[in-house]
Amino acid sequence: MSKCVVQCQNIDKIYQDGNQSTHVLKGVDLTLLQGETLAIVGSSGSGKSTLLHILGTLDNASSGSMTIMGQDISQLSRNAQAKFRNQHLGFIYQFHHLLMEFTALENTAMPLLIGGMKAEQAKIKASAMLERVGLGHRINHKPSELSGGERQRVAIARALVSEPDLVLADEPTGNLDKQNALNIYNLIQELNLSLKTSFIVVTHDLELAAKLNKTAFLDDGVLKIQTQEAIA
Length: 232
Ligand SMILES: Nc1ncnc2c1ncn2[C@@H]1O[C@H](COP(=O)(O)OP(=O)(O)OP(=O)(O)O)[C@@H](O)[C@H]1O
Ligand SMILES: [Mg+2]
Hints:
six-stranded mixed β-sheet, binds magnesium ion, binds adenosine-5'-triphosphate, Rossmann fold, three-stranded antiparallel β-sheet, P-loop_NTPase, single chain, lipoprotein, alpha/beta, cell inner membrane, ATP hydrolysis activity, globular
């Protein structure tokens, strides 16, 4: 039987600013098995990034329970949480969050170096991943010397280089033209098949969403999941 990568039950998120509160997530249930891919769609402000941050253990839910790879992250120390993220999770943020003073190669190698890999080997792996996202010719450029779409592809390479169990991606192809967006989705499918990597991808593009196993619609804080067959 496939391992459970994500299991969350009854997740609520309420942002409290002074006397103003915003109820963003309402009783979200989600189960994702190893090797499954899920697209999350929903209008702007519906809580997609909020949910992704909670799933990635970067933010806490207001209530509800969650395990990632069978582990209740809230039970871990801060150091153990950081180590867990480095070993199991890959992030592609809505805004790329690259380190501006480092090259594409150094940015991509970073998760491997943090995980303890030797610099030489990390650079070989990072360089191969940059090649796969079509940036083999730009590895020594810094983010300020790259286009928006190229930066996004560096961020994608950085998230995938350590071959994580689960990749969480927030609009990973938002800055890309159709061809480069398709290349990224093909890469997602390739890694999913060869390494059984699970993906949760926030996107506005239903055509790209259809390339994943399931689509979840986030509407007024409620998450509804459909398989592609049900949508078609
Ligand atoms: N730190 C915060 N404090 C208060 N409200 C917040 C905070 N972060 C997000 N929100 C609110 O929560 C709601 C969901 O935000 P979120 O960023 O998750 O939306 P989203 O679905 O990712 O939108 P987009 O498609 O525009 O990226 C929004 O109404 C936003 O204003
Ligand atoms: Mg967002």
